[in-house]
Amino acid sequence: MFPATIARMPPSRRSLLAGGAGFLAAGAAGVGFIEAGLLPGRVHLHAALGLTGPDGVVPSVTPGARVTKSFRSRARRGQRVTWSASYPPDVPTTARLPVVLALHGRGGDHRSAFTDLGIDRFVAAAVAEWPTPYVVVSVDGGSLSFWHRRRDGDDPQAMIVDELLPRLAERGLRTDRIGLLGWSMGGYGVLLFAERHPDRVAAAAAMSPALWRDYDDVWPGAFDDVTDFRAHDVYARQAALRDIPLRIDCGRDDPFAPAARAFIAGLDRRPAGGFQRGAHTLGYWRRMLPAQLAFLAWNL
């Protein structure tokens, strides 16, 4: 989960290895938690001056029902994986609705979409205005998996396609073509999944996708090595997104903004969304969530 300056790329792997990383609370601007060591000085200053924009506020409403289950995942090397499905208010958990799969950021799990972002309450506040209500599903993808098969055999994408979606279909949910939503690491995961499985994706929305053009700039642990990095390069397969409705949002003070601009420039058509005041923070993601959720509702 994490940030950028238009004039400065994210810190290198070497500097992160030297400096370490952890979570800290943002200061006077109240922009939400960020990862220590990833915010350049300009962003701290902009946050203190209120130049990164207001924080989004989770609606004070009652969400719909949530179902939580777990299973032993063969694709994730026998790990127990938990998923949660959040339904719109007043909708029974037997309803046959489409699915929006929410891919969490670094250090997150299936709870993050609800406890950190409050997606279930944003849905509850807006669903009456949407043409297509849907179920938001979040699943454990690994705290630093970057949503792709790793050298040790852990494969979150195979888990989604071969294990999670069939389980959701058994519950009566519509999984032939799904919506995708993700932030930071999960934003990268959205783009990667959509490129690898375009026939399964009806629409995709990414916030602050964690993208790098150069392996030397990559967060430690995001990829096994340079070969892994190149094998999962989302810039190399952008043509696969040609027919998928796509929205990408990124704060102008996010360290990933330059890489996001480069990704958008390489698409056949400009996606919805854009670059707003904001950094790599919960406050920014909460502010962008209503537009992202509505985009998916209108394109499912």
Automatic annotation (TrEMBL):
UniProt KW keywords: Hydrolase
UniProt superkingdom: Bacteria
Record-linked InterPro entries: AB_hydrolase_fold, Esterase-like, Mycobacterial_A85_antigen
Any Pfam family the entry gives: Esterase
A molecular-function term among this protein's GO annotations: acyltransferase activity, transferring groups other than amino-acyl groups
Protein name: S-formylglutathione hydrolase FrmB
Species of provenance: Thermasporomyces composti
